[in-house]
Amino acid sequence: MAISELDGRTIPHETRLPAIMDALAGLAPGESLVLVAPHHPAKLLQILLREFPGRFEFGPLECGPAAWRWQFTARDPSLPRSVTGYLVWDHRRMEDLLDETSAAANAGRWEDAQRCASRYATALRRHADVEDEVLFPAYENACGGFGDGPTAHMRAEHIQVRAGIDSLVRAVDARDDAGVRAADELLRRVAIEHHAKEEEILFPSIDETFPQPELDALVQRLLLA
Ligand SMILES: [Fe+2]
Ligand SMILES: [Fe+2]
Fold first, then answer.
1. CA of 4 to the centre of ligand 2 (A)
2. Which of 74, 94, 136, 211 lies at a CB distance of 3.0 to 4.6 Å from 151, suitable for a disulfide?
3. Average pLDDT of the chain?
4. How far away, in angstroms, is 47 Cα from ligand 2 center?
């Protein structure tokens, strides 16, 4: 289902921030909005975390140079934050983007396929970077290091996932039906199985490792990375 978009570039600068905050504050838990901004929305994200703690999941779909697209979904702020909660949200939205990319390519809607593939690539590359650079080091430090343990295995799978994204983007750009099907099959096998392992084993274990205040701080670092 298409998520409604608010193009902040069309709102006068003086009223832009309050208008965006009003639109986001009006979302009920489970509802989503995509914001289009003329620059990285770092300031807005900091304000949202301060003014509405625990109220939103968010992540990028496009990072410039002409537009920055960020996806927001409202959540119930009375529920405790967790790594599982945030990153499962991110996995589901990426899986939706892969579905949309392949459906558009199969229907010969190549411009739509390019747009969806680009957003999928932005979201999934950033997701793998956040896990590699923020989440796994925090978990490894808390556990005294892992050597070749579960995070090393996940890092190795991220290399395959990134290669799959590159193949998908290349195939869509070349309007190569067979290439899109092959990349789709690879990503479903590698990325989706990888997500399942994280969701069922690794993330719950990370959530159990940290007391709630530290978990809140860790999720905040993931959101802003
Ligand atoms: Fe991962
Ligand atoms: Fe993940």
1. 25
2. 136
3. 95
4. 26
Q: Has this prediction a pTM greater than 0.85?
A: yes
Q: What is the CATH number of domain 5-74?
A: 3.30.110
Q: Which residues contact 151 (CB under 8 A, 6 or more apart)?
A: 136, 139, 140, 202
CATH 1.20.120 segments of the chain: 83-224
Q: How far apart are alpha carbons 208 and 20 in whole angstroms? A: 35
Q: Residue 46: pLDDT band by 50, 70, 90 thresholds? A: very high
118 Cα to the center of ligand 2, angstroms = 18
CA of 14 to the centre of ligand 2 (A): 38
Q: Which amino acid is at 24?
A: L
Q: What residues sit around ligand 2, an ion, with C-beta below 5 angstroms?
A: 198
Fold designation for 83-224: Four Helix Bundle (Hemerythrin (Met), subunit A) (1.20.120)
Between the CA of 91 and the centroid of ligand 2 the distance, in Å, is 6
**Crossing angle for the helix pair 13-25 and 42-51, nearest 10 degrees?**
50
